[in-house]
Amino acid sequence: MPARNKQTFLQGAIILLVATVLVKVIGVLFKMPLTNIIGATGMGYFNIAYGLFNTLYALSVAGLPVAVAKMVAENAAARRFRDVRRIHHLSTLAFLVTGTVGTLIMFFGAKPYVTFNKNEEALYAVAVMAPAILFVCLTSSFRGYYEGLRNMYPTAVSQVVEALGKLVFGMLFATYMMDKGMTEYEQLGTVFGKVCASPEHARLDVLPYAAAGAIAGIAVSTVLGTLYLWLRHHVRGDGITQSELKNSPMPAGRRKLMRSLVRIAVPVCLGSLVLNITTIIDISSITNRLSTALAKDSATILGMYSGAIPFAMEISGVPNFLYGTYTMAVTIFNLVPAITTTFGVSALPVIASAWATHNRSELTRGIESVLRITSLVAFPAGCGLFALAQPILLLLYPSEAAAVQIAAPMLRTLGVAVMFVSLATPVNSMLQAIGRVNVPVKLMLVGGALKLTTNYIFIADPSINIQVAPYGTLICYAFILFFSVPILCRSAETTISLVQTFFKPFMAAVLCGFCAWATYGLCSKVISQELSTLIAITISGVFYVVCLFLLRAIVKDDILMLPGGEKIAKTLEKKGLIR
Question: CA-to-CA distance for 392 and 530, rounded, in angstroms?
């Protein structure tokens, strides 16, 4: 059995970050071509299914991995390795039960769900997604266990395995269903038995099946991820040696450990559940309030988006189309929180260990590092999305130029929101690590209510309609962050430097955004938009790094957490770039 090597916060974060970047690149290779194949309407069906899956995923999974990671980290720090093994066995059983229940709920609840959303064409996609819940639960059992042992490699590799499976099987199944449906129309004038009046109507009728095919690929990918983790665990083990087990005290009783798991998991699960129920209600409120807006004044909305809405589309399909354009912006927006979430995952066992051993200096250093490094990533990403919203959308969705005109203003607003969203998740993880598991739930309840209220009141206004949806996200997470950071610092009995942690990264990010906007404006006058976008991103990225060093926004502690950090820090100190 290989020896167990604990990773620092930043080492673990880098491992997860590399995996996340790979996953997101693979995701782009999946979602962007998929969007070009099935369009905004098909992506509407796809995301209806994904929204329900995420909610049931939160109910089945979200709390337990955090509880497992926290308890494993605390017991490993106390060298109670028999408890560590027992926690893993108990959590696997719990995940098996909750995953099975979640799968059954999603499968049998598919029909009522799509009926409630007034989107019955998404039924096949929702039903096909159901088995994925069971396998994601089993995967999360292993991930939480290894994350608690401060070994991020199993999580990272399994994520890449899942992403590759999704790319291969999702595209294969979606393309197959699209080709099969259109071939049938060319031969018989029907799509899966339904008579179609024109090629445009045939394409619209085949989209629910193509979306279901893409979802089926995701379900297969979760099976592959579970299989990899099971094989790895049985072949390589967890790194706990026989000597460590022999010298460990007798483990706590199963009932006591299970009560501890539940006590930590339930509030965390409720917080994630609130977030994902908010997402489902968000989906429903957007489509339903858009229907209300169309009923009030369809001419205003159709006039706003003249030329973007497909000619053959009936007016009842417009809400789903507009929601599909919104998800185009959201797909890009979600790339940034997906990266910063890795900081929270890596930070949780580090903060939990410091908290359990009452190491205040390590706790303070850890909290500052997590907040500062998250800011260093989130702020330039947000400013970049604000500055280059339309060029980025056109680069990624070249065949959806009309829909991009609708999505670009929404992505600009989401660029501001992403700064708050990206920081909120690591802060919540640190609150959970120090035992304040109820705080994220309460804040999310209020933030979610603010978001839904914004959507309900303003989306029904025909003059602004879907364009107001990103503001709900901005208001929600700004509220959460402004309250959660002070609570974290007060609970941990620590203070942070606001200038070093937030102000300096923000100033460098604003300059980066301005550089991106100016570079694109100049380059687009002489070369193609696509190349101009890539050049603007590259130059502004280099300019941002220069600004960070000039403003002394990077500190020595951050460098020391890197592999080979001491050598890098000495070199930077000699050049006067860090203190």
Answer: 8
Listed in sequence order, the DSSP H helices in 305-359 are: 318-333, 335-356
Say which DSSP state 58 is in: I
Q: Please say whether the beta carbons of 183 and 42 come within 8 A.
A: no
Helices 318-333 & 401-433 angle (0-180, nearest 10)? 50
Residues in the chain: 579
Residue 513: pLDDT over 70? yes
Q: Are 456 and 396 in contact (CB under 8 A)?
A: no
Angle in degrees, 0-180, between the axes of helices 389-396 and 318-333, rounded to the nearest 10: 100
Strand locations in 66-168 (E): none
- At which residue do the structure tokens 């996200």 appear? 473
Q: What is the pLDDT of residues 427-481, one digit of tens each?
A: 988 998 888 888 888 898 898 889 888 888 888 888 888 888 899 889 999 999 9
d(C-alpha 338, C-alpha 515), whole Å:
25
Q: How confident is the model at residue 278 (pLDDT cuts 50, 70, 90)?
A: low
CA atoms within 13 A on the CB side of 98: 26
Kind and range of the H or E run holding 22? helix 9-57
Q: 370, 343 in Cβ contact below 8 A?
A: yes
Which of 568, 521, 525 is CA-nearest to residue 540?
Answer: 521
The predicted-structure confidence for 519-551, as pLDDT tens digits, reads as follows 999 998 899 988 999 999 999 999 999 998 888
- What sign has the CA pseudo-torsion 557, 559, 565, 570? negative
Model confidence pLDDT, tens digit, residues 228-272: 999 999 888 888 888 888 888 888 888 888 888 777 777 777 766
Strand partners, 194: 191
Q: Which residues pair with 190 in a beta bridge?
A: 195
CA distance 197 to 33: 27
For residues 144 and 64, is the Cβ–Cβ distance under 8 A?
Answer: yes
Q: Which helix (H) or strand (E) holds 86?
A: helix 81-108
Residue 492, both tokens: 């941990």
Backbone angles phi, psi at 525, to 5 degrees: -80, -20
Q: What is the mean pLDDT of residues 91-108?
A: 87
How high does pLDDT run on average in the chain? 84
Q: Return the pLDDT at 475.
A: 93
Q: Count Cβ atoms below 10 Å from residue 546 Cβ, excluding itself.
A: 13
Instruction: Give yes or no for a contact between 81 and 241, defined as CB atoms under 8 angstroms apart.
Output: no
pLDDT at position 478:
94
Q: What is the spatial distance between Cα 288 and Cα 466, in angstroms, rounded to a whole number? A: 11
Would you state the structure tokens that stand for residue 92, as one six-digit string? 């696997």
